[in-house]
């Protein structure tokens, strides 16, 4: 049986994905700007008392602790942002490589699938830029390299890729790691602005994973013709409704440590 993709509904899916991404980035830019300002004020607020040499020793000690605490929080936040950028860099390079494959971005590729891969790659590019912009404004070094833990895994996997299903499997891993990392980052960063940023971007990555899980299940069931929105409910397997959302709560056991992608 010849399988085909419903281009009209996949275009709708692309639009929905882009809308979620645009909302996250719009709010994210505001959150990052507010966070950078708050971090700068926090650091400045910690230093000011040190200039007043006449303060009592107890007050001076509290000022020193305040400075150290503010600096530690900001430094940790920089590492978290650098690690996030490294994950986004890896996703960009992986999708870029996938688009060189004939069945993803070449002559035999479905035009909508190709466009979806390109749009997802663009979204990851924008995420990386946003994270690095905050890093630079906080005085840190921009992270332009891919995540050091997962880059070798991707490099060893790429030569074994033979089908679109192989690409989907690899992409699921990367999107899941990113989503889990950003969910955990919500509990690690120092301000509400930054927590909101990571929560919103985690939603984008989780949506990517959900879509890929559904596609993976249909490809595995030799039912690529059912990859459509809305799907033909009479033909879908019983598990199709929940395959994209296997967890009641998003796990964080695969989340990257805060300093995994930090610039050394």
From TrEMBL:
InterPro entries for this protein: Ferritin-like, Ferritin-like_SF
Keyword Membrane attributed = yes
Q: Does the keyword Transmembrane apply?
A: yes
| Keywords on record | Membrane, Transmembrane, Transmembrane helix
Membrane spanning stretches: 50-74
Question: Which superkingdom does the taxonomy of this entry point to?
Answer: Bacteria
What is the official name of this protein in its record? Ferritin-like protein
Q: Which species is listed as the source?
A: Dactylosporangium matsuzakiense
